Amino acid sequence: MSRPAGVVEHLFRHSAGRIVATLARALGPERLDLAEEAVADALEQALRTWPQAGIPDNPRGWLFRAAQNRAMDVVRREQTLRTLLPRLVELDAHEAGRGTDDELVLMLLCCHPALPTVSQVALTLKTVGGLGVNEIAAALLTKPATVAQRLVRAKKWLRESGKPLSLPGPDALESRVDSVLAVLYLLFTEGYDATTGEVAVRGELCGEAIRLGRLLLAEPKTDLPRVRALVALMLLQGSRLPARVDRDGDLLLLDEQDRDRWDQAMIAEGTRLFERACTGPEMSAYHVEAAIALCHGTASPPDWRRIVGLYDDLLALRPSPVARLNRAIALSMVDGAVAGIAELEAIEADLPDYTLLPAVLGALWLRAGDPVRAAEHYRRALALPCSEPRRRFLTRRLTACAR
Fold it and tell me: Which stretches make up the DUF6596 domain (predicted)?
């Protein structure tokens, strides 16, 4: 954090969304593009000037002022928007630091039901989460060009809709919250198991997802049991981040991790929050996933039979091929590798480009004593997009098949 590039990266992940939200409140949601561009320009300016001039005493305030000035320059040149200039001038730098309400409102606006669900996800990940188009495409298992088109259409709708940047009414709030939760979990998942790039884990994305989840908890209207369950789930899974990679940055499987390196404070907080989430009658998919995370965190080895039962509950609440894949892994720990393989082969057509599926099949065939079939699946996995650490992991497993 003492290097300018490190400070800028930290601000991008932890402050850019707040500043975009604050500027968007002044400009109006129809000018969200301008708010994003102004912050991007300010970040670029910081990367150019801080190495020579030094890091300012208040980097976040500097970034806010630079973004504000950039937006004001654009507005001055646009005669039709001159009425916005006084609203920008009135903004104070400290508003960027306390713009959490603006961020929450912007998240909820990005998840407006008039937008298709996939567009809600893409827009929120881009605007509030700070993910790039390629990262969003990997998280959504789709193509970057498709994501780019969705973002263009979603921003066009925002410009033309005239929707205010304010909390929706009670009738609309709950459905918006569900969309926000789906986005935050995608953001967390991309950090927990990076799909592209040079690192296996991106802790800043996990931290950002947890921070945004806490914004929902801080607002009484959105402090709901399923929100508590998701934040608990992210805390419980996030507690393992220090042990998910070795000294070389390579992936470690759950049974290879040093549990002494798990963050006990996060586990305790996640457990308390999960208990609060279970005080009412609501039972969401996030409740079940948090219960699975607790099973992994409280016993070694885990109670795999109970985990299989919990995945059955999860599939009843929210069927998905990824949940079936995870159930198959748990089932293989109860009934053997062949049972897991049969489950996975039944869903291969549903996950044609999902790197984890052939990787798990490779591991199970190796356990079943068939290294030739295992190698075939590892080669399939290596042909799909993945992070460099996962590629090294798969290459080592392929080499093990040859031995």
Answer: 176-277
